[in-house]
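User: Run a structure prediction on this.
Assistant: Running it now.
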Amino acid sequence: MPFQQKNGLRFYQFDIFSPAITHGVFTRHGGVSPEPWQTLNLSISVGDDKTRARENRLRAFEVLARDPASLHDAHLVHGVDFVLAHAPRPEHQPSLKADILLTNKPEVTLFMRYADCVPLLFHDPKENVIALSHAGWMGTVQGVAQVTVKAMMEHYNCQPENIVAGIGPSISVDHYEVGEDVAVQFREKYKDDAEKILQVRDDKLYLDLWTANVLQLRNAGVEQIQISGLCTACHLDDWFSHRAEKGKTGRFGVLLGLN
Protein backbone atom coordinates (compact mmCIF):
# COMPACT_ATOMS: atom_id res chain seq x y z
CA MET A 1 0.00 0.00 0.00
CA PRO A 2 1.35 3.48 -0.83
CA PHE A 3 0.16 4.99 2.47
CA GLN A 4 1.95 4.13 5.68
CA GLN A 5 1.03 5.07 9.23
CA LYS A 6 3.28 5.21 12.27
CA ASN A 7 3.04 7.07 15.58
CA GLY A 8 -0.06 8.87 14.32
CA LEU A 9 1.71 10.18 11.20
CA ARG A 10 0.35 9.19 7.80
CA PHE A 11 2.65 9.37 4.79
CA TYR A 12 2.81 8.30 1.16
CA GLN A 13 5.60 6.22 -0.36
CA PHE A 14 6.23 5.38 -4.01
CA ASP A 15 6.70 1.71 -4.80
CA ILE A 16 8.90 2.49 -7.81
CA PHE A 17 11.89 3.32 -5.61
CA SER A 18 14.39 0.74 -4.39
CA PRO A 19 15.12 0.04 -0.69
CA ALA A 20 18.36 1.96 -1.18
CA ILE A 21 16.52 5.15 -0.25
CA THR A 22 14.24 6.29 2.54
CA HIS A 23 11.44 8.65 1.61
CA GLY A 24 8.07 9.91 2.73
CA VAL A 25 5.51 12.43 1.51
CA PHE A 26 3.81 13.43 4.75
CA THR A 27 0.12 14.18 5.01
CA ARG A 28 -1.29 16.73 7.44
CA HIS A 29 -1.87 14.11 10.16
CA GLY A 30 0.05 13.51 13.37
CA GLY A 31 1.34 16.94 14.32
CA VAL A 32 0.72 19.53 17.02
CA SER A 33 -0.43 22.59 15.07
CA PRO A 34 -3.97 23.99 15.49
CA GLU A 35 -6.29 25.24 12.74
CA PRO A 36 -5.77 26.38 10.03
CA TRP A 37 -2.48 24.45 9.99
CA GLN A 38 -3.76 21.27 11.54
CA THR A 39 -1.85 19.30 12.32
CA LEU A 40 1.48 18.39 10.73
CA ASN A 41 2.40 21.79 9.31
CA LEU A 42 6.09 21.83 8.41
CA SER A 43 6.53 25.49 7.49
CA ILE A 44 7.46 28.47 9.64
CA SER A 45 6.41 30.97 6.96
CA VAL A 46 2.62 30.51 7.07
CA GLY A 47 1.85 32.02 10.47
CA ASP A 48 2.20 28.91 12.61
CA ASP A 49 4.38 29.01 15.72
CA LYS A 50 8.00 28.05 15.00
CA THR A 51 8.12 25.74 17.99
CA ARG A 52 5.17 23.73 16.70
CA ALA A 53 6.58 23.51 13.17
CA ARG A 54 9.89 22.32 14.57
CA GLU A 55 8.19 19.65 16.68
CA ASN A 56 6.28 18.48 13.61
CA ARG A 57 9.52 18.23 11.65
CA LEU A 58 11.18 16.23 14.41
CA ARG A 59 8.26 13.80 14.36
CA ALA A 60 8.56 13.30 10.60
CA PHE A 61 12.28 12.61 10.82
CA GLU A 62 11.79 10.23 13.74
CA VAL A 63 9.15 8.19 11.90
CA LEU A 64 11.57 7.58 9.02
CA ALA A 65 14.51 6.99 11.38
CA ARG A 66 16.46 9.91 9.93
CA ASP A 67 18.66 12.10 12.12
CA PRO A 68 17.06 15.59 12.33
CA ALA A 69 20.58 17.03 12.14
CA SER A 70 20.93 15.51 8.65
CA LEU A 71 18.45 18.02 7.20
CA HIS A 72 19.25 20.05 4.10
CA ASP A 73 16.36 22.18 2.89
CA ALA A 74 15.89 25.20 0.64
CA HIS A 75 14.15 28.57 0.58
CA LEU A 76 11.73 27.97 -2.30
CA VAL A 77 11.46 30.73 -4.90
CA HIS A 78 9.65 29.03 -7.84
CA GLY A 79 12.75 28.89 -10.02
CA VAL A 80 15.29 26.40 -11.33
CA ASP A 81 18.38 27.11 -9.22
CA PHE A 82 19.86 24.05 -7.52
CA VAL A 83 22.03 23.25 -4.52
CA LEU A 84 24.48 20.37 -4.27
CA ALA A 85 24.00 19.24 -0.69
CA HIS A 86 27.44 17.95 0.23
CA ALA A 87 26.58 18.06 3.93
CA PRO A 88 23.62 18.82 6.19
CA ARG A 89 22.70 22.49 6.46
CA PRO A 90 24.06 23.90 9.73
CA GLU A 91 21.17 25.03 11.90
CA HIS A 92 22.54 28.58 12.18
CA GLN A 93 22.93 28.92 8.41
CA PRO A 94 19.90 30.23 6.46
CA SER A 95 18.50 28.01 3.74
CA LEU A 96 19.74 28.89 0.26
CA LYS A 97 17.24 30.09 -2.34
CA ALA A 98 16.64 27.15 -4.66
CA ASP A 99 13.98 24.73 -5.88
CA ILE A 100 16.25 21.74 -6.54
CA LEU A 101 18.38 19.82 -4.04
CA LEU A 102 20.80 17.03 -4.97
CA THR A 103 23.15 14.79 -3.01
CA ASN A 104 25.08 11.54 -3.04
CA LYS A 105 25.74 11.65 0.70
CA PRO A 106 23.85 9.19 2.97
CA GLU A 107 24.36 11.55 5.90
CA VAL A 108 22.12 14.16 4.21
CA THR A 109 18.31 14.14 4.22
CA LEU A 110 16.74 16.35 1.56
CA PHE A 111 13.63 18.16 2.76
CA MET A 112 11.08 20.42 1.04
CA ARG A 113 7.59 21.77 1.76
CA TYR A 114 4.55 21.91 -0.52
CA ALA A 115 0.87 22.90 -0.70
CA ASP A 116 -0.25 22.36 -4.34
CA CYS A 117 3.07 22.56 -6.20
CA VAL A 118 4.47 19.28 -7.50
CA PRO A 119 7.04 17.32 -5.46
CA LEU A 120 9.52 15.65 -7.82
CA LEU A 121 11.64 12.88 -6.31
CA PHE A 122 14.61 11.35 -8.13
CA HIS A 123 16.95 8.42 -7.54
CA ASP A 124 19.76 6.98 -9.61
CA PRO A 125 20.50 3.58 -8.02
CA LYS A 126 23.58 3.07 -10.18
CA GLU A 127 25.39 6.25 -9.10
CA ASN A 128 23.62 6.37 -5.70
CA VAL A 129 22.32 9.89 -6.18
CA ILE A 130 19.04 11.49 -5.12
CA ALA A 131 17.35 14.79 -5.93
CA LEU A 132 14.25 16.60 -4.75
CA SER A 133 12.54 19.40 -6.68
CA HIS A 134 9.65 21.84 -6.29
CA ALA A 135 7.58 22.36 -9.45
CA GLY A 136 4.85 24.97 -9.41
CA TRP A 137 3.71 26.46 -12.68
CA MET A 138 6.61 28.93 -12.75
CA GLY A 139 9.22 26.26 -12.08
CA THR A 140 7.59 23.90 -14.55
CA VAL A 141 7.51 26.40 -17.41
CA GLN A 142 11.17 27.18 -16.70
CA GLY A 143 12.01 23.47 -16.94
CA VAL A 144 12.72 22.46 -13.34
CA ALA A 145 12.44 18.73 -14.11
CA GLN A 146 14.82 19.00 -17.04
CA VAL A 147 17.27 21.10 -15.04
CA THR A 148 17.25 18.51 -12.25
CA VAL A 149 18.10 15.68 -14.64
CA LYS A 150 20.80 17.78 -16.30
CA ALA A 151 22.34 18.60 -12.91
CA MET A 152 22.36 14.90 -11.97
CA MET A 153 24.14 14.13 -15.23
CA GLU A 154 26.70 16.94 -15.06
CA HIS A 155 27.57 16.77 -11.37
CA TYR A 156 27.11 13.08 -10.54
CA ASN A 157 27.64 11.29 -13.86
CA CYS A 158 24.05 10.01 -13.92
CA GLN A 159 22.46 8.66 -17.07
CA PRO A 160 18.76 9.40 -17.69
CA GLU A 161 17.89 5.78 -18.41
CA ASN A 162 18.99 4.88 -14.86
CA ILE A 163 17.01 7.62 -13.12
CA VAL A 164 13.77 6.76 -11.34
CA ALA A 165 11.33 9.64 -10.76
CA GLY A 166 8.23 10.09 -8.62
CA ILE A 167 5.61 12.81 -9.09
CA GLY A 168 4.02 13.46 -5.73
CA PRO A 169 0.65 14.72 -4.48
CA SER A 170 -0.18 18.15 -5.90
CA ILE A 171 -3.04 20.06 -7.46
CA SER A 172 -4.67 18.26 -10.39
CA VAL A 173 -5.83 19.72 -13.68
CA ASP A 174 -9.45 19.59 -12.51
CA HIS A 175 -8.77 22.27 -9.90
CA TYR A 176 -5.97 24.30 -11.47
CA GLU A 177 -7.54 27.11 -13.44
CA VAL A 178 -5.01 29.51 -14.97
CA GLY A 179 -5.14 32.71 -16.96
CA GLU A 180 -4.17 33.35 -20.54
CA ASP A 181 -0.90 34.92 -19.32
CA VAL A 182 0.15 31.54 -17.92
CA ALA A 183 -1.21 29.54 -20.83
CA VAL A 184 0.76 31.52 -23.42
CA GLN A 185 4.02 30.67 -21.64
CA PHE A 186 3.22 26.96 -21.72
CA ARG A 187 2.23 27.12 -25.39
CA GLU A 188 5.58 28.71 -26.16
CA LYS A 189 7.55 26.12 -24.19
CA TYR A 190 5.62 22.98 -25.15
CA LYS A 191 4.72 23.86 -28.75
CA ASP A 192 2.67 21.01 -30.25
CA ASP A 193 2.49 19.25 -26.87
CA ALA A 194 0.70 22.21 -25.25
CA GLU A 195 -2.69 20.71 -26.09
CA LYS A 196 -1.79 17.78 -23.81
CA ILE A 197 -1.39 20.01 -20.75
CA LEU A 198 -3.89 22.82 -21.31
CA GLN A 199 -7.60 21.98 -21.14
CA VAL A 200 -10.51 24.26 -21.97
CA ARG A 201 -13.81 23.78 -20.13
CA ASP A 202 -16.64 26.31 -20.07
CA ASP A 203 -14.34 28.91 -21.58
CA LYS A 204 -11.86 28.46 -18.73
CA LEU A 205 -8.27 27.23 -18.97
CA TYR A 206 -6.91 24.43 -16.76
CA LEU A 207 -3.26 23.38 -16.42
CA ASP A 208 -2.08 19.78 -16.02
CA LEU A 209 1.20 20.00 -14.10
CA TRP A 210 1.53 16.22 -13.86
CA THR A 211 1.58 15.72 -17.62
CA ALA A 212 3.76 18.79 -18.11
CA ASN A 213 6.44 17.34 -15.86
CA VAL A 214 6.14 13.85 -17.33
CA LEU A 215 6.76 15.33 -20.79
CA GLN A 216 9.85 17.13 -19.51
CA LEU A 217 11.20 13.99 -17.90
CA ARG A 218 10.65 11.87 -20.98
CA ASN A 219 12.24 14.51 -23.20
CA ALA A 220 15.23 14.42 -20.85
CA GLY A 221 15.49 10.65 -21.31
CA VAL A 222 13.83 9.49 -18.07
CA GLU A 223 11.35 6.67 -18.61
CA GLN A 224 10.97 5.20 -15.10
CA ILE A 225 8.27 7.53 -13.79
CA GLN A 226 5.50 7.02 -11.26
CA ILE A 227 2.67 9.53 -10.72
CA SER A 228 0.97 9.42 -7.34
CA GLY A 229 -2.25 10.72 -8.89
CA LEU A 230 -3.26 12.39 -5.63
CA CYS A 231 -4.83 15.84 -5.86
CA THR A 232 -4.18 18.14 -2.92
CA ALA A 233 -7.30 20.22 -3.61
CA CYS A 234 -9.52 17.11 -3.80
CA HIS A 235 -8.22 15.51 -0.62
CA LEU A 236 -8.06 18.19 2.06
CA ASP A 237 -8.44 15.44 4.65
CA ASP A 238 -4.85 14.45 3.84
CA TRP A 239 -3.13 17.41 2.17
CA PHE A 240 -2.69 21.13 2.53
CA SER A 241 -3.89 23.07 -0.53
CA HIS A 242 -3.03 26.74 -0.88
CA ARG A 243 -5.63 27.23 -3.59
CA ALA A 244 -8.51 25.22 -2.14
CA GLU A 245 -8.01 26.70 1.34
CA LYS A 246 -7.54 30.24 0.00
CA GLY A 247 -4.04 30.61 1.39
CA LYS A 248 -4.98 29.88 5.00
CA THR A 249 -3.25 26.56 5.44
CA GLY A 250 0.02 24.83 6.21
CA ARG A 251 2.66 22.99 4.20
CA PHE A 252 3.27 19.25 3.98
CA GLY A 253 6.79 17.93 3.71
CA VAL A 254 8.84 15.47 1.68
CA LEU A 255 11.90 13.73 3.12
CA LEU A 256 14.37 11.88 0.90
CA GLY A 257 17.61 10.21 1.96
CA LEU A 258 20.08 7.55 0.93
CA ASN A 259 20.43 4.56 3.22
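The longest strand covers residues 118-124.
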